[in-house]
From TrEMBL:
It comes from Pantoea phytobeneficialis. Residues 44-236 form the Succinylglutamate desuccinylase/Aspartoacylase catalytic domain. This is Succinylglutamate desuccinylase. Transforms N(2)-succinylglutamate into succinate and glutamate. It catalyses: N-succinyl-L-glutamate + H2O = L-glutamate + succinate. The gene is astE. GO terms for molecular function: hydrolase activity, acting on ester bonds; succinylglutamate desuccinylase activity; zinc ion binding. The active site is at 211. Keywords: Arginine metabolism, Hydrolase, Metal-binding, Zinc.
Length: 331
């Protein structure tokens, strides 16, 4: 296979479903699902996913740029690798999703909407992870990097979203995220239906949703904005020294979630509000019937505000910055 992205977008089964070159063997497992195994044993198993949302194309282009030299045998492979293009149907249509947001359906939540296309795909992706991690040696390190872009512009162009994790985050993983040029890390404090939460909770993988810029159609992305992430991924995949950390990411925690329940939901933020915009205590953020969402802490930052989500889903997160919170507690 020469071009995994074009193959996936074509919607066709490849003529050859497996192959090998000087460095690795590869196997096409299903639409958008490809495993690559180096000939030399490795201590790391990596899941690299993109295109979970079909309109988030920059990470898909980055992933394919990194993958193509591997498939051509031009680069060695330093990890056991599972590459996933999450939602091929949505990628073809250029839409976030076809019928339902797939990144709310992992961990078996797909069973609650079992008749939609994304429910079948979420199950297929869960199975792919199960097979991949199942064949994992106990000594192998498990990482999952799920590459996205945000709908809105952001005060931090590149940032990571960390699922709730009962274990301490591995130091080498945190170091890699800093090397990748992430300006901020957002830590969830409750479970969710995201892909990274699934791999962290069910397979003890160190996982992160990487948000790389703003969603644009294929061919319109300025990939130079993501050169640190590209270099960090290249070092991980091909082996070799990691680049230097340019700046440590700021740390934010989720303070509260704004949820839309139905037609009466009103979000008191305009379309121009950027991710990580700060709001002072007492600001009315959203309302629906008798429910009102206010800023509770001295200052909270909004992330992913979106009044157009399906009923029952997250319409925004409010964050606190970790060192600001520590300062407030010690005053
Ligand atoms: O910009 C937006 O509103 C959404 C961007 C996006 O798809 N973000 C992920 C974050 C997943 C997480 O919380 O780890 C999502 O909403 O699925
Ligand atoms: Zn996304």
């Amino acid at each position: 296979m020469q071009d995994f992205l074009q193959q996936t977008l074509s919607g066709r089964v490849p003529l050859e479903r497996q192959g090998q070159n000087a460095h690795l063997s590869w196997q096409w497992l299903d639409e958008g699902i490809l495993s690559l195994t180096p000939h030399t044993p490795t201590s790391q198993a990596l899941v690299l996913s993109a295109g979970i949302h079909g309109n988030e194309t920059a990470p898909v282009e980055i992933l394919n740029l990194l993958l193509t030299p591997l498939l051509r045998g031009e680069k060695p492979l330093a990890v056991r690798l599972l590459v996933l293009l999450g939602n091929p149907q949505a990628l073809r249509s250029g839409k976030r999703y076809q019928q339902y947001d797939i990144n709310r359906l992992f961990g078996g939540r797909w069973q609650q909407v079992s008749d939609v296309a994304e429910a079948r795909r979420a199950l297929r992706l869960e199975q792919a992870l199960e097979t991949f991690w199942h064949t994992c040696l106990t000594t192998e390190t498990r990482w999952h990097l799920d590459l996205h872009t945000a709908i809105r512009g952001s005060y931090h162009t590149r940032f990571g979203v960390m699922p709730l994790n009962q274990r301490p985050w591995p130091q080498d993983f945190m170091h890699w995220l800093a090397v990748a040029g992430l300006e901020a890390l957002v830590f969830h404090r409750s479970p969710g239906g995201t892909f990274t939460h699934f791999s962290c909770e069910h397979y003890a993988a160190a996982s992160c949703t990487l948000e790389l810029g703003k969603a644009l159609p294929f061919g319109e992305n300025d990939l130079t904005q993501f050169s640190a992430a590209y270099q960090a991924l290249a070092a991980l995949l091909y082996g070799g020294a990691l680049p230097e950390v340019q700046a440590q990411p700021r740390h934010y925690q989720v303070a509260q979630q704004i949820t839309r329940h139905g037609e009466d939901f009103v979000l008191h933020m305009g379309a121009e509000t950027l991710n990580f915009t700060a709001f002072p205590q007492g600001t009315l953020l959203a309302e629906e019937g008798d429910t009102r969402y206010y800023v509770q802490q001295a200052r909270e930052y909004v992330l992913f505000p979106n009044p157009n989500v399906a009923a029952g889903l997250r319409a925004g997160l409010m964050l606190v910055e970790e060192n600001e919170q520590t300062q407030a507690l010690t005053l």
